[in-house]
What does this fold into?
Amino acid sequence: MSWGVAASPRAVGGDTFSASDNARNPGYAPQADWIGLNGGEGFKPWKAEGRLPGATRMVATDGGFQFKAGEPAGEMAMIRGLDTTAGLDSGTFSVTMWGAMGGADEPGDFAGFAVYGKDGGSYSELFRWGVAIMEGQAIPESFAYSLDGGTSYVSIHPGSGYPSGGVDYSLTWALVEGGTMQIGLSAADTSTGGAFFGDCAVEVETADRVMAIAAVLTESGRYSGQGDGSEMQFDNVTVTGHEPVPAPAVPEPGTLGLLAAGLAALLGRRAKRGR
It folds into this structure.
């Protein structure tokens, strides 16, 4: 993990893929639970894993609506499968998040996003990032990333908490030779345009293509035994990228035989004409 150095993943040249969604799309009913719906393009319907039903809803804002999740204790992953059977070798996942946590936040609380590959018929998490509460903190002032099952923390704007205007996240990734995925992550305060934290670059040991993205919220409830009101609001979800380059078609043995016979016949005709 290195800070202050943005990754420069090598582009992979398959078919171009694009997906986008926001809470203002007509496919979502205002104030309704949006799990199971799909108001965007290029995505599959929202799918929730963990937590209790009813923890997701729309929230009204000056600009319309935003996706919101929160309240019950536990972890919820709100997953969007990408509408591609091949997955993406490289790409960019962009999203804006407001209202990271709130109420009586506790160590272990987390609000952020993730990218997934696929292991058999199930999604498997490749990388997650967001903001988290650490021991001794009263507000979310640490950026967290999770890699190979472990979580690391880096301080961000100590004492200031999460920007009230929200943060624009942009994650880029690319598979390279040797079973490695290069990841670059940046974030900007939507109000000022300034960096929320230094750009980072990591490498993940995986050959899995990205098949889904997700919003993830963890409410520990470790002190009260129940949820304490932590929540997240987000919108403007976009994914662009490239599918893998199709493997060249290999002629079947019978086809090769026919080609050879045709070539021999052609050469025979030319030989006769030259006599």
